[in-house]
Amino acid sequence: MHDLTDEELLDRYGSGDPQAFDVLFSRYRRPLYSFILRFVSRRDMAEELLQEVFFKVVRSGNEFEGRAKFSTWIYRITRNLCVDHLRRMTHRKTTSLDQSSRDNDERTLGQKVQDPNAGVERQVMQGRLRTKIEEAVDRLPNEQKEVFLLREASGLPFKEIAAILGCPENTVKSRMRYALERLRADLAEFRDMTKPRSAEA
Amino acid sequence: MSRDQIQDSGLNLVDYLYGEMPPEETAEFEASMDEDQKLAGQVQDFQNVLAAYRSLPTDEPSSATVESILSKAHEAPEPKRVSEHQRDETTDNGSGHKPGWWSRLVVFIAPPERRFALGTAFSVLLVCGIALGAYYWKGRVIPGSPNEPRPTPRAQTVASENNFETQTDKKQVAQSETLTLQKAHEKNGLQTGAVGGDNPQDALEDETARRTIRSVDRGLIGKNQFAVDKRGRGREVQLTTRANRSGQGHRALKMRHLYYDGLHARPSQPGSGRSAGRGGRGRVDESAGRDVRPRGAAAVVSRPRHRRAPTSVDPLASLLSRSAEPSKKPAPVRRRSTGNVRANSAPAPAAAPKGAPTTRQTAGGATATPANTATYSKALRLARSGRHKQAVVLFRTIAWSTQYRSRTDMWLAWARSELALGHLTRAERILTHALRIAPKRRTEINRLRAQINRSRKRRATKRAERRARSRRAHKRPTRPARPR
User: Fold this and answer.
1) To the nearest whole number, what is the mean pLDDT of chain B?
2) Which of B21, B42, B43, B45 would best serve as a mutation to test chain A binding (most A beta carbons within 10 A)?
3) Which of B159-168, B227-236, B398-407 shows the lowest per-residue confidence on average (mean pLDDT)?
4) How far is Cα B112 from Cα B245, in angstroms, rounded to an integer?
5) A174 in contact with chain B, both atoms CB, cutoff 8 A
6) Do the Cβ atoms of A176 and A148 come closer than 8 Å?
7) Which residue has the higher pLDDT, B98 or A3?
8) Which long-range contacts (CB under 8 A, 24 or more apart) does B276-279 make?
């Protein structure tokens, strides 16, 4: 089952084999979730969107024509959902104290504000770097952000990213270049920390 | 460095960062990095940024979400296979973005059965449109076109006899015939229209029509208005009546002109009996032969069907052959219709009755006939001598002619005669018409109206006295009181 391609798995699922969907889900849940989480910057919303993406696959899996790769198709669905979500959220961009932040801990922002144990320097720096990276990615324009995330969070090649976004490959690379420039500028204060240890050595 | 070069270097940089650069270009790029420390530092910074980002912990969806998705996928019913075009109709493969109208249209007409249906519908619409266009274009024949219909035999006869060009349209044929008639009349001094002759039926119909005229004169269209239907003139009378009732006096007047002239154009024939007037007394000159209809109008003089001429004989040809004969002796000619449209473009010369002088044109375009002038003079003479009854008959005869209908003197003289005869209502109507055509003579008209009112009052007084007298005459004598 695991040797089958995505398209074959989808076809099997369409024929009534639920195990095929499990394999598909295991292949795509992590990169998709990573992409969605970095894109919308909210864990609860990321999980909701992930559910929606796979529900769409379940509902309209038989509409997959096979013209493009399955990965292209599912990433296009994901990207469109994320863009729509961001478009909706531009009108109500407020942070609730009850919603959890994007980091791993499930604490809400209100709980973190009241946390008395946040004080170790290293952890603070690591935490700050991580937060800074996430904020820097979040500040990227959507065009650059989606290219950067599709490449870094989902590991897609530029050619497939171009197919997903419907633009030339050179445009994708150009956007990637600009995204890297912005990130470098935003993370300038952490230059020493961002250096790999091997380089430091 | 140009913009393209910058872009190329940026693309190369990205390719180098992700190891997608070919080996020979990689070596070249690394060589350039050795030379350009700035580029090398830039590459290093990018690598650091990417390394920092990749060092972030990998995120996993919560187990609840995973379970929710898997349970939903397992519970979902078995997906149905859909056809190709149904698949195309869905929105962008379920990605949530609707395709444009063009792509939807293409998808809609994709199935062959739909293409066939649409093609059939379009063909039917096209055929219907062409048929409709041809239907409305019917009658508008382009001269010289292959669709031009062939001229009718009658039109060919007319054309051949008069050196006219053949006309295909019915209207043009009628006009052609009318012109032919006029031409023949001008040549022979005949008048347009049919003639009554000695036929008693014709005389009867003439009399019926004149009675109707008198009814129109009085403003009281009697029951005999429908009697002229057989002659095809009832329509005009009805229109006149309707216009009168709806208060459109001017329209009624116009129609009355039309009606009178249509009838006056018909000559009285010797021996046709009572030609006009009450009881046939006096001979009325009906030789006016004028046509005062507005331009473009044509008086329709249809014949009764039971008296229609045999179709084997061309009526136009027969009339023309008769009109070519010398008209010294007005032989009794049977009425032969020459088509149902009479000319109105030019006044047709009228055939004068026996011994009457020919007509002449006035400067204003109206036809002034010495006969009418003589009639008017005679009517005036009769009125002066107190023979109002005969004068009124003559006035009525010439009143609607083109020559006299605008002459206020005639109307006033007629009104005076009517007043003298005691026809107050009729006199008042004549004065109303006179006022309409000559408002400047209001004083004179009002004087006559005052005279009418005085006569009415006098008449009412007399009537009251008469009633009182009769009441007194029939009053029972009162009984004497019984002695107590």
Assistant:
1) 64
2) B45
3) B227-236
4) 68
5) yes
6) yes
7) A3
8) B276/B210, B276/B393, B276/B397, B277/B393, B277/B397, B278/B214, B278/B393
Q: Are B314 and B338 in contact (CB under 8 A)?
A: no
Q: How many CB pairs under 8 A join A and B?
A: 146
Name the phi and psi angles at A95, rounded to 5. -105, 120
Average pLDDT over residues B90-104: 61
Nearest residue of chain B to residue A85 (CA atoms): B96
The DSSP result for B424-457, as a single string, is HHHHHHHHHHHHHH-GGGHHHHHHHHHHHHHHHH
Tokens representing residue A30 in the block: 């992590």
- Contact residues for B300 (Cβ-Cβ < 8 A; gap 6+): B232, B235, B340, B341
- The token pair at A106 is 């499930």
A47: which chain B residues are within 8 Å (Cβ-Cβ)? 61-62, 65
Q: Do B68 and A174 count as a contact with CB atoms less than 8 A apart?
A: no
CA distance B462 to B456: 10
Q: What percent of chain A has pLDDT over 90?
A: 4
Residue with tokens 């026809």: B423
Q: What is the pLDDT of residue B361?
A: 38
Look up residue B60 and give its two tokens. 């996993």
Q: Contact at 8 Å (CB) between B327 and B190?
A: yes
| Complex ipTM value | 0.77
Tokens matching residue B381: 């003479």
**For residue A194, how many other CB atoms are within 10 A of its CB?**
24
pLDDT at B229 over 70: no
pLDDT of residue B452: 92
Residues B455, B422 contacting (CB under 8 angstroms): yes
Two tokens at B392?
């009124």
Higher pLDDT, B321 or B148: B148
For B:86-145, CB contacts with A below 8 A are: 87, 90, 92-97
Convert chain B into a string of H (helix), E (strand) and C (coil): CCHHHHHHHHHHHHHHHCCCCCHHHHHHHHHHHHHCHHHHHHHHHHHHHHHHHHCCCCCCCCHHHHHHHHHHHHHCCCCCCCCHHHHHHCCHHHCCCCCCHHHHHHHHCCCHHHHHHHHHHHHHHHHHHHHHHHHHHCCCCCCCCCCCCCCCHHHHHHHHHHCCCCCCCHHHHHHHHHHHHHHHHHHHCCCCCCCCCCCHHHHHHHHHHHHHHHHHHHCCCCHHHHHHHHHCCHHHHHHHHHHHHCCCHHHHHHHHHHHHHHHHCCCCCCCCCCCCCHHHCCCCCCCCCCCCCCCCCCCECCCCHHHCCCCCCCHHHHHHHHHCCCCCCCCCCCCCCCCCECCCCCCCCCCCCCCCCCCEECCCCCEECHHHHHHHHHHHHHHHCCCHHHHHHHHHHHCCCCCCCCCHHHHHHHHHHHHHHCCHHHHHHHHHHHHHHCHHHHHHHHHHHHHHHHHHHHHHHHHHHHHHHHHHHHCCCCCCCCCC
Quote the distance between the C-alpha of residue A56 and its chain's center: 18
pTM here? 0.40
Tell me which residue of A173, A179, A79 sits closest to A133, measured CA to CA. Answer: A179
